[in-house]
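Repro:
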Amino acid sequence: MAFAVASDEVLGTFVPVAVYWIYSGIYVLLGDFKEYRLHTKAEEDAKNVVSKSTVVKGVLVQQAFQIVVSLSLFTVLGRPTSDDSGRKPPEGSSFLKVAIQFAVAMFVLDTWQYFIHRYMHINKSLYKHIHSKHHTLVVPYAYGALYNHPLEGLLLDTVGGALSFVVSGMTPRTGIFFFCFATVKTVDDHCGLWLPGNLLHLFFSNNTAYHDVHHQLYGTKYNFSQPFFVTWDRVLGTYMPYSIEKREEGGFEVRPIKVKS
């Protein structure tokens, strides 16, 4: 299957990558706003054991996998991008239909990522050799959101994304918006900032502070859900509640509320 330069398949593959770097770049510019940080800059430098240049390289490797799998998926599905006249066919998708597709895709992606993510913590070998790479960022930051072992990135994010796309039945054009939204949500969950007026914090309980709990030593057995809702954690007893307190020196602190083992 040949891809037009600006086909929906190509846009759906590359636009989320661009969104990742643009959106995380915005957070980099805001990163010195200590009054909104969940961890101090000193904590970030002391606790994270991997250099930022290594993180950038690791993310680029994962995104390369995503690009290959995405283009391969569209090739296998063979969904047309134009009719015999060379014009793109109308999408014919109502707002309700797209909303349902989004809801299905979100549920599928959440379900896949919860159980795969949780199993990577349960299985000591998988954690040691694969998932621990992501947890070298004890203090998460925006462009480290997709810093994973390549196998984890392929299994958790790329395969999960492909499943959510196929099961929901969304078109490549709808997929552009869904995967851009999922990308923004993932970056936001790792940004390490608790910004006032953040609409994602207003509509989603699975947010920056929620995921920060999981990255701390006390929270590695909790808060596995990602990237949208906290449903599976609540249903299966792996939800750790928390409070957000102001630090005297500026910024915020996420304090866990102990739960029974």
